[in-house]
Write a structure and sequence with these properties.
Elements lengths: L2 E10 L6 E11 L3 E5 L6 H6 L9 E6 L8 H7 E4 L12 H7 L8 H14 L15 H13 L5 E5 L7 H12 L4 E5 L3 H5 L3 E6 L2 E7 H11 L1
Parallel strand pairs: 3-7, 3-8, 5-6, 6-7
Antiparallel strand pairs: 1-2, 1-4, 8-9
Length: about 230
């Protein structure tokens, strides 16, 4: 898959006029694993959210394998899965199995077959036996695994993960990392965890809404460490 940003800018209305969040940015991302790193407020999450239309470009154009998220939103959302920092933002059903099953409605129209498929996916994610547990009774790591399982159940070709380990302890960070880096999908990872960033193929460093470094992930992390 190819993600292209063509002279893209993003600004929002402010009391004294438009506030720029993303300066003019041109990038083509084709690598399997791309890390977006930088300080808080640097624009990395904004850039990531452009990919599936959660944020709309003020100018320029975003393309996902030739599709525009604004014009071809439904098709882009089928291809791009988005995982939020806080899984509570996307866990909408009462139990774990119901939440995953919600993502399987299009591919599994039969209710019982859908439940079986959802339980299988939970087993594969390391959540066996938790299908009928309330999502509110799960640990933070389990909720994040559940949220990722629900996103991946739609079989996207790209996964955008926006700081998926920020709220987790070390053990659960490792579990989520193992899941992410074992995926066949293209991964666009927004992260403050520089160890995770170094495992990617490419790193894009952002600061004050601009790309300040773009290259191999290890070099990107070294640049960020040297300038932070």
């Amino acid at each position: 898959m190819t993600i292209t940003f063509e002279a893209v800018t993003v600004s929002f209305p402010g009391a004294d006029g438009p506030v720029s969040v993303l300066a003019e940015t041109t990038l083509t991302l084709e690598e399997r694993r791309v890390a977006l790193i930088g300080p808080n407020g640097s624009g990395k999450s904004t850039l990531a959210r452009l990919v599936n239309g959660l944020v709309t470009a003020t100018s320029g154009r975003v393309l996902v394998d030739g599709l525009d998220p604004d014009r071809d939103g439904r098709e882009v959302r089928r291809r791009v899965g988005f995982a939020f920092t806080d899984p509570a933002a996307q866990l909408v059903m009462p139990t774990a199995v119901e939440d995953v099953a919600l993502s399987l409605r299009r591919t599994h129209p039969d209710k019982e077959e859908r439940r079986r498929a959802a339980l299988d996916l939970l087993d594969q994610a390391g959540l066996a036996g938790l299908g009928d547990r309330s999502v509110h009774a799960l640990s933070g790591g389990q909720r994040q695994l559940l949220a990722l399982t629900g996103v991946l159940a739609t079989n996207p070709t790209i996964l955008v993960a926006d700081e998926p380990t920020t709220l987790l302890d070390l053990a659960n960070t490792r579990r989520i990392a193992d899941l992410l880096f074992g995926l066949e999908q293209q991964l666009l990872l927004v992260t403050h965890d520089l160890g995770l960033a170094e495992r990617c193929d490419r790193g894009v460093v952002m600061d004050e809404g601009r790309v300040v470094f773009d290259g191999p992930a290890a070099e990107a992390v070294a640049h960020y460490r040297a300038t932070a």
